Amino acid sequence: MADIVLTTLNAKYIHASFGLRYLLSNLGPYRRQAELIEFDINQRPLDIAESLLRHQPKIIGIGVYIWNITPTTQLVSLLKRLRPEVLIVLGGPEVSYETEGQPIVDLADFVITGEADLAFRDLCGQLLARNLPSTKIIHPTLPQLSDLELPYAAYTDEDLQHRIVYLEASRGCPFTCEFCLSSLDIPVRQVPLDRFLEAMQQLMDRGLRQFKFVDRTFNLNLNVSKAILLFLLERHQPGRFYHFEMIPDRLPAALREIICRFPDGSIQFEVGIQTFNPAVSELISRRQNLDSLADNFQFLRNHTGVHIHADLIVGLPGEDLMSFAAGFDRLIALRPQEIQIGILKRLRGTPIIRHDAEWGMVYADQSPYEVLQTSSVSFEEMQRMRRFARYWDLIGNSGNFVETLTLLWAPGESPFAQFLRASDWLFSRLRRTDQIALVRLYELLFEWLIQEKKGHEDQVAATLWRDFSRGRRIEPPRFLTPYLSPTKAVKVASVAGDTVPKRQARHWATPSATELEGSAPVRLDSGQPPRS
Predict the structure, then answer these.
(1) CA angle at residue 197 from 338 to 152, to 5 degrees?
(2) How far apart are the C-alpha atoms of 471 and 401, rounded to whole Å?
(3) Which residue stretches of 141-190 are H helix?
(4) How far is Cα 312 from Cα 374, in angstroms, rounded to an integer?
(5) Residue 229 phi, psi (nearest 5)
(6) Which of 15, 19, 334, 404 could anchor a disulfide with 297, C-beta 3.0 to 4.6 Å?
(7) Cβ 302 vs Cβ 334: under 8 Å
(8) Contacts 24+ apart (CB under 8 A), 356-365
């Protein structure tokens, strides 16, 4: 039994709720009366309600996000019908802004907006004492990070072994990009560095291998980012992987020198570019130096083993497809390993809505609130870009088609234009963008490259086979075997075996055609690829 139950519906099991662990760790005298129980959006709200009520709670605190708002609303409705006396407390970004008229807010007893690390503890004390607040919506002041208990002890050993573990050395963002909730979170505040490094050491001692930092601007404070990177570098062991969100145009020499010393494939930088159009950037209050950005990308690709994950957004006010295409081609030339193409979302509380009338912004009224059309991009064009984004993730980002991708456009051709052609063709054949078997995707790309791009069958087949073997597969798919020499096999060099996540590892694997006797099976050797 637990008087207080903390819960949320994660997007996937692998995601472990960082916010709930902060709340649990900061419950103070009520910590022993509390239980944390996580679910995911694929579970039925009715079954979740049963599991929660089994604990006979007095208070249920629920984290509400853009990805779980619909099933969570169903869950809260069920809970209030079944046990109206149980007090439901909501928190999270989806209920922190524009609360009026939200069905889930109407159903709940209380809502804590913003950072609830300490406010939830205080509210629980009042509720357990039956001293109910007079207001439903509670707006706490920002807590001092030095006053918070860090949440890392709340990660179980199973979490550390099988789930994504999140870390933060700072909160907030100094920028004012109008599409982003972080633009409302000013100023940037630092977790006391000594306490943070101590917590990281404890996670290392417990066997954590993947460290995902959620700081919006990890490289903003040079001294702090240097200290953390040096701490990780001095204690690095094979198999550890570090993910950071970086400001793309800020990479001074002091950081460059440290980054160069990390093993290939052990660091991933998520770099939010969003647009290369200066007029659009100005319109949405985004600041970035494109020349410095390009220089930093060239340094990272030519002199480090960093895996770069770069972001672009479709549907920003004032940006049409021609502008987006120019930005995409420009980003392709900078050679990040992954380009995440996102469709603009109208997040609650963000000032992007001030452009709605002028730029004809029309958004879906259901989560994830993606833009449907603008005055610059029609609904039909936006649908094409949704398919483009999905197929790009399957082909361009997955690491399954690293060499094949270069065959989709010739020198002098626009990568955007050629991939859009391929995307349209794939959809004409598949009529869907999900649940596509990998072998089927290889077969369709073979057909596209032969029929539409007039590629040579043997060359295309050999390229596809090298990519197919990149995923440690030892038998070619049947449709390729007529075009492959029986005396050819593939030797694959990977980054220190299985020491980095599979998706990133495929980008770093370096298959090459190797003459072997007879039809010997593929050898999968470990080794360090050269820096490109």
Answers:
(1) 80
(2) 10
(3) 157-162
(4) 17
(5) -65, -40
(6) 334
(7) no
(8) 358/317, 359/317, 359/318, 361/317
Whose tokens are 């005396």? That residue is: 487
- Name the pLDDT band for 178 (thresholds 50, 70, 90): confident
For residue 183, what pLDDT band results from cuts at 50, 70 and 90? low
Tell me the two tokens of residue 404: 């094949």
Residue holding tokens 């010997």? 520
Evaluate whether 34 touches 128 at the Cβ level (below 8 Å). no
What distances in angstroms separate CA 185 from CA 4, 93, 116, 212, 282, one per listed residue?
A: 28, 12, 14, 20, 20
Number of residues assigned to the chain: 532
Q: What residue spans of 176-320 are helical by DSSP H?
A: 193-205, 222-234, 253-259, 278-283, 290-303
In DSSP terms, 370 is beta-bridged to 345
For the stretch 58-78, pLDDT in tens is 999 999 999 999 999 999 999
**CA–CA distance, 116 with 423 (Å, rounded to integer):** 44
Do β-strands 371-373 and 362-363 pair in parallel, antiparallel, or remain unpaired?
Answer: antiparallel
Residues facing residue 241 across a β-bridge: 210
Among the ranges given (208-222, 313-327, 410-424, 474-488), the one the predictor scored with the smallest mean pLDDT: 474-488
One-letter amino acid for residue 14 of the chain: I
Read off the tokens for 262.
């990390």
| CA gap 355, 311 in Å, rounded | 22
DSSP 78-112: HHHHH-TTSEEEEESGGGSS--TT-HHHHHSSEEE
Q: Are strands 87-91 and 110-112 parallel, antiparallel or unpaired?
A: parallel
pLDDT at residue 490, rounded to an integer: 52
Closest to 473 in 3D by CA, of 530, 521, 418, 520: 521
The yes-or-no verdict on residue 218 having pLDDT over 50 is yes
pTM above 0.90, yes or no: no
Contact 389, 434 (CB under 8 A): no
At 98, list the tokens. 């524009």
